[in-house]
Automatic annotation (TrEMBL):
This is Inosine/uridine-preferring nucleoside hydrolase domain-containing protein. One of its GO terms (biological process) is purine nucleoside catabolic process. The keyword Isomerase does not apply. SUPFAM superfamilies: Nucleoside hydrolase. GO terms for molecular function: purine nucleosidase activity; uridine nucleosidase activity. InterPro entries: I/U_nuclsd_hydro_CS, Inosine/uridine_hydrolase_dom, IUNH, Ribo_hydro-like. GO terms for cellular component: cytosol. Residues 6-302 form the Inosine/uridine-preferring nucleoside hydrolase domain. It comes from marine metagenome. It holds the Pfam family IU_nuc_hydro. Keywords: Glycosidase, Hydrolase.
Length: 312
């Protein structure tokens, strides 16, 4: 019996791909649908990639909806320099044969939440928060339906990865992130401060390949491509695997540690646009609005992914 009803909001992206496959491989998760957004690459490509991943996982019945094609206020910034031209470079997957659902992703999110019981659906955000913020603004009555929001975004002690102060997902749509951070529902944040402690090791990548399955081959290929950018940039022994922390948190929360703190998003200064300002030391009287995660049992995290992928 699944214990988590979730919506995944995503811009695949190789690390999004691992998160989606991890959710599809896990019996504890009831994936109500996937909503795509413009982010790592434009919307047409993030949507295509999501469809390809559902087919790769042999779950073609998964519903995929296209959401917003640009951020709420600012022009779209993409990250082909990290993810390649398609967003899933290195995966070598065939074009999808399944198609997108007709409804807009934001409208489907609203409809799905309104039909749900109070406190029953977890929203897993792996991308700029445009769709989720749009849904909250269009239909604030969805808020009580949300059990929690677990999002990959932000960074404080590590600084940023797209500007010196700002992490990509928050930077691309800071106004949306600001709306979500202030929504009043329980929020768990997986920032760079934790994902930079989840570094892929060669041995683990080799173990993916050794699965000898289409999922093993595709994930080995895409992650070998994806990690080259961060390995060169940070001079680390492996690249960080950001988005799957969100799904792993639902499956094994004991792998993570964090603190209940106040987190606010900078939306005024061009210099620090999209910075997440974290009151880690509680030096203000701003009320805590999020569980900000900063520790991970990385061995346990990578073992979990490998174990689940062996069933796909
Ligand atoms: C985040 O930005 C994207 O490039 C990744 O998919 C992840 O969601 C990391 O900053
Ligand atoms: Ca992402």
């Amino acid at each position: 019996m699944p214990s988590h009803k979730i919506i995944i909001d995503t811009d695949p992206g190789q690390d999004d791909a691992i998160a989606i496959l991890l959710a599809l491989a896990s019996e504890e998760i009831d994936l109500l649908g996937i909503v795509t957004v413009a982010g790592n690459v434009p919307l047409a490509l993030t949507s295509r990639n999501a469809l390809m991943l559902c087919e790769l996982a042999k779950k073609p019945e998964t519903k995929v909806f296209a959401g917003c094609s640009r951020p709420l206020v600012r022009p779209l910034v993409t990250a082909e320099h990290v993810h390649g031209k398609t967003g899933l470079d290195g995966a070598n997957l065939p074009e999808p044969t399944i198609t997108l659902q007709k409804q807009h992703g934001v409208d489907w999110t609203i409809e799905t939440l309104l039909a749900a019981e109070d406190n029953s659906v977890t929203i897993c955000c792996l991308a700029p928060l445009t769709n989720v913020a749009m849904a909250m603004v269009k239909a604030p009555e969805i808020l009580p339906k949300i059990k929690n929001i677990v999002l990959m975004g932000g960074g404080f002690f590590e600084g940023g990865n797209i500007t010196p102060t700002s992490e990509f997902n928050v930077y691309v749509d800071p106004h949306a992130a600001n709306t979500v951070m202030k929504c009043g529902r329980p929020l768990v944040i997986m920032p760079l401060d934790v994902t930079h402690k989840a570094l892929m090791q060669r041995k683990w990548l080799d173990a993916l390949k050794a699965l000898g399955t289409p999922v093993g081959d595709a994930t080995y290929g895409m992650l070998s491509f994806y990690e080259r950018f961060d390995v060169e940039k940070y001079g680390s022994s492996g690249g960080p695997l950001h988005d799957p922390t969100v799904i792993a948190y639902l499956l094994q929360p004991e792998l993570f540690e964090g603190r209940q703190v106040n987190v606010e998003v900078e939306i005024h200064s061009e210099l620090t646009m999209g910075m997440t300002v974290v009151d880690w030391w509680k030096v203000t009287d701003r009320a805590p609005n999020a569980t900000y995660i900063n520790q991970i049992n990385a061995d346990g995290f990578f073992a979990l992914i490998l174990e689940r992928f062996s069933s796909l």
